[in-house]
UniProtKB/TrEMBL annotation:
Pfam families: Glyco_transf_4, Glycos_transf_1. GO terms for biological process: carbohydrate derivative metabolic process. InterPro entries: Glyco_trans_1, Glyco_trans_4-like_N. Residues 55-158 form the Glycosyltransferase subfamily 4-like N-terminal domain. This is Glycosyl transferase family 1. Belongs to the glycosyltransferase group 1 family. Glycosyltransferase 4 subfamily. GO terms for molecular function: glycosyltransferase activity. Keywords: Glycosyltransferase, Transferase. Residues 164-326 form the Glycosyl transferase family domain.
Length: 354
């Protein structure tokens, strides 16, 4: 019997890491993919449609269930709200279900409850496999009692780069960057904790925060109060990060929590030197002093020290960037990871057919 078509379910408000992963996934992983968005903004659907991915925008459980009644599919659900609705549909319609766990952001009591519930729901038989993007995420599931044979770690990966591997970095005009959603879990405030003192010490240093989010105005105000609005720029969300990656002297990841960040892989692909907190799946990907520099979680002083090392020693940055680039091509190259996804989908589909 032929493999089932794959229907991805996701609740999303914009094009961030999980959405980038999903778009690449649909374009590279073998199989017939479609994406079922739950109340997504039109721009997000346009982005997937322009890339040649079939997608539908649905509202609520009833609409999702009605769509899934049309033909048998293998469901892959990608965040908590979508996962709960997909679980109900899979149970009611008898469809095979995979949960992809991109990571958790348990900041508030509500989010901590969602994390607790998500981990425990993964024990249900209706969920055939749980795909975790990092070993640290899989460990949380094992600690919550999820059967080890139900878990599979498949890290995020990147397809071939769409732009030439062109080094645009200027050692005489260093540029340090943060890339990501300007929200608490991504730690842009911790980024400023590290960079504001460096900017005061180095008047020629330029810094960019690339992204948007709920902390935008508070961050902008803090930069203005520090008198650094000419050094620390906030250009907003960028749809194409390729050339930025080849311009940055250092990419800084100051996240409080992470899975396997797509922007980390993009920096590795471009050979961009990396300084990051050792949180989530980042230490799975970056080895300190071998392919990047890692600081203790939330320690902005240590992080600033690592940024300084990379700025003061371009040869060190080049060596670490090259090692990271080679690691990305070896271990986080999506066409290679496609074989693992294909095997997972096939195993779930065959078990359902039996």
């Amino acid at each position: 019997m032929a493999d089932l078509p794959i229907a991805h379910v996701i609740h999303s408000g914009g094009f961030y890491g999980a959405e980038r992963m999903l778009l690449d996934h649909c374009r590279v992983i073998p199989g017939q993919h479609r994406v079922l968005f739950l109340d997504a903004p039109p721009a997000l659907l346009e982005r997937f449609t322009e890339a040649g991915v079939e997608c539908h925008n649905l509202s609520g459980l009833r609409a999702l269930q009605a769509h899934l009644r049309q033909q048998p599919v293998l469901l892959n659900a990608h965040n908590f709200k979508a996962q709960v609705l997909a679980l109900l549909c899979a149970w009611r319609l008898g469809l095979p279900l995979v949960w992809t766990q991109h990571g958790f952001t348990p900041r508030s009591a509500k989010q901590k409850f969602y994390t607790w519930l998500s981990l425990r729901l993964c024990r249900r038989a209706t969920i055939r496999r749980v795909a975790c993007v990092a070993q640290s995420i899989a460990q949380l599931h094992r600690q919550a009692g999820v059967a080890p044979d139900k878990l599979q770690v498949i890290p995020n990966g990147l397809p071939e780069p769409c732009i030439p591997n062109e080094n645009l970095r200027d050692p005489d005009a260093p540029l340090v960057g943060f890339v990501g959603r300007l929200s608490q879990e991504k730690g842009p405030d911790l980024f400023l904790d590290a960079l504001i003192p460096l900017c005061r010490q180095r008047p020629t240093l330029k810094v960019v925060l690339l992204g948007d989010g709920p902390l935008s105005e508070a961050l902008r105000q803090r930069i203005q109060e520090a008198g650094l609005e000419l050094q620390i720029l906030m250009p907003g969300y960028q749809s194409n990060m390729g050339k930025w990656m080849h311009r940055l002297s250092v990419l800084v990841l100051s996240s409080r929590t992470e899975g396997t960040p797509m922007i980390l892989l993009e920096a590795m692909q471009a050979g961009t030197p990396i300084a990051a907190f050792a949180v989530g799946g980042i230490p799975d990907v970056i080895e300190h002093s071998s392919s990047g520099l890692l600081a203790r979680p939330l320690d902005s002083v240590e992080l600033a020290g690592h940024i300084t090392e990379l700025l003061d020693d371009p040869d060190l940055g080049e060596r670490l960037g090259l090692a990271a680039q080679q690691r990305q091509r070896r271990d986080y190259h999506l066409p290679r990871l496609a074989l693992r996804w294909q095997a997972l989908y096939r195993a779930v589909s065959e078990a359902w057919n039996r």
